[in-house]
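Exercise 7.
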Amino acid sequence: MRIWLAVAVLLIAPRFLNANTIVLNFESFTDSDILTNQIAGVTFTNTVVLTAGISLNEIDFPPHSGVNVVFDNNGPITIAFANPITQFAAYFTYVEPLTLAAFNASNTKIGSALSLFSINTATGGAPGSSPNELIQFNSATGISKVTIAGDPAGGSFVMDDVTLTTPASTVPEPTTACLMLAALTFIRRRTR
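Solution. The predicted structure, written as tokens, is:
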């Protein structure tokens, strides 16, 4: 009876899954690609890919990683998510102060984050600034859309290495050890 009680406790005790983290580094795109819905579950507006050594001035706007970044083409970048996320983070180099605004599934603004400086390019940045400033926003209730705005006409920042964190699953799943213990108990009972 004690064995069955132990098995039941182990099977009932949930193991929660960790949150998923997705990094978008834009390296799979080519220079001047217009980014819209090429990434599953994510929709971009006003977003174009720039490549170092081609259309990107990598001296003032160095990529955070790789050779590709995206920039705000003709207005603020909007990124909509098919499933809400809990954290948005990205690296920005800019020539205008930036505002990141986050919205929930009802399109209600749930908060914002601001750049630390008015300009942070490599050769002309404000004192104390450096390229690739990390700007992020967290929300336990879920982020369905973000907008990043500098100059309303666009052409004011580049973005790289976007990190999206999805909520942790609360669906319990048995661990391998629990399943093995249950199988051994079943086999032991069948052989008696």
